[in-house]
Amino acid sequence: MxxxxxxxxxxxxxxxxxxxxxxxxxxxxxxxxxxxxxxxxLDRSAAVAWWLALVVGLCSTALTATTGFFDWIEIxxxxxxxxxxxxxxxxxxxxxxxxxAAALVGHADYAKGVVGSGSFVLTLVAFALLTLGGWLGxxxxxxxxxxxxxxx
Length: 152
Description:
This protein is an all-alpha fold and 152 residues long. The protein contains 5 helices and 2 strands; from the N terminus they run αββαααα. The chain has helices at 5-8, 16-38, 44-72, 80-112, 117-142, and strands at 9-10, 13-14. The chain has a two-stranded antiparallel sheet with strand order 1-2. Helix 2 runs antiparallel to helix 3 and helix 3 packs antiparallel against helix 4 (80-112). The longest helix is centred in the middle third of the chain and has 33 residues, at 80-112. The protein is elongated. It starts with a helix and ends in a 10-residue tail after the last helix.
């Protein structure tokens, strides 16, 4: 058992992709909850769910980003995989930063049981960045085959 398995996962079973499922799922849920509150389909409970999901997403981002960074530093610099991953990195960091801004800006509104317009716009912008970053992450795996073990 290698120490790197704790950060990178086992060969053919990397840690970063399943952690992205948690993070992307949580941020997606936050975006849906915010939408439901803003359009008036759900009341206070959606605003609370939105803000708590942002907090959970931000916490899971720490693990997801750490494992992704350790995968990134081992990619051959200048390769097509590295170029895609290097675009993936700022897209995801930007999404996380904007989700953090939404949580901070929206805390006072959350306490009132609403998602404010500024917080909602930040959530939508962050979700768009998250979608772009997730698409680039898919290219890394499904086009470039990073961390995929071929069955010979």
